[in-house]
Structure to design on (210 residues):
């Protein structure tokens, strides 16, 4: 009896010691696993914090045009206006706005402004009334605004050329009508319609939509 009891005590003592050792081992294992998990999480956070950010794609760059290119477009605009003005029946038909808009769309704001600003005063030198007058200033201002607005568009398309030619022509007609404080709709409507035609022709010749 006493031997059986002693054995039980030994077993109990041995079991308690073994159980305690296993518990300590499990605790140590859990702590190590927890530390590894923390380290892993820290590494992930470190990687994410140092991961390169995705950069937004820059807007497409417009083609460069040199002084010769600007002068060429300017001379074309001036020559066409002078040629058309020789026909009395073609009054208020002039392609300067669509050409300035095309320059702005294709080559940027500066090109659009220069052509819109200079084409009217230069062509006025050869037309009745001359260059020196409020009309030349207002015409140049209207043309420059039309070219400038088109220059802010990222991509050139035939549709943009038509739309901004219409917008530019409306702005032009409002500006040149300021001294009279009235708009005589016959000439602006003719100007808008013919500029749409010019824009379609320029688009077909010079723009390849992708």
């Amino acid at each position: 009896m006493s031997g059986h009891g002693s054995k039980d005590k030994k077993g109990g003592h041995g079991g308690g010691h073994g159980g305690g050792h296993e518990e300590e081992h499990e605790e140590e294992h859990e702590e190590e696993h927890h530390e590894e998990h923390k380290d892993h999480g820290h590494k992930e956070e470190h990687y994410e914090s140092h991961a390169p950010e995705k950069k937004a794609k820059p807007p497409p760059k417009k083609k460069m045009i040199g002084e010769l290119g600007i002068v060429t477009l300017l001379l074309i605009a001036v020559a066409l206006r002078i040629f058309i003005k020789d026909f009395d029946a073609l009054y208020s038909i002039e392609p300067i706005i669509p050409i300035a808009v095309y320059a702005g769309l294709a080559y940027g704001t500066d090109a659009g402004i220069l052509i819109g600003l200079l084409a009217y005063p230069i062509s006025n030198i050869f037309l009745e009334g001359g260059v020196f007058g409020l009309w030349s200033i207002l015409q140049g201002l209207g043309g420059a605004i039309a070219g400038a607005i088109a220059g802010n568009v990222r991509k050139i398309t035939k549709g943009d050329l038509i739309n901004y030619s219409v917008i530019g022509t409306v702005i032009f007609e409002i500006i040149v009508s300021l001294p009279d404080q009235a708009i005589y709709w016959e000439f602006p409507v003719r100007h808008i319609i013919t500029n749409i035609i010019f824009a379609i022709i320029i688009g077909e010749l010079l723009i390849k939509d992708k």
Summary: The two ends are 102 Å apart (CA to CA). Residues 1-55 form one domain. The chain has two domains: 1-55, 67-206.
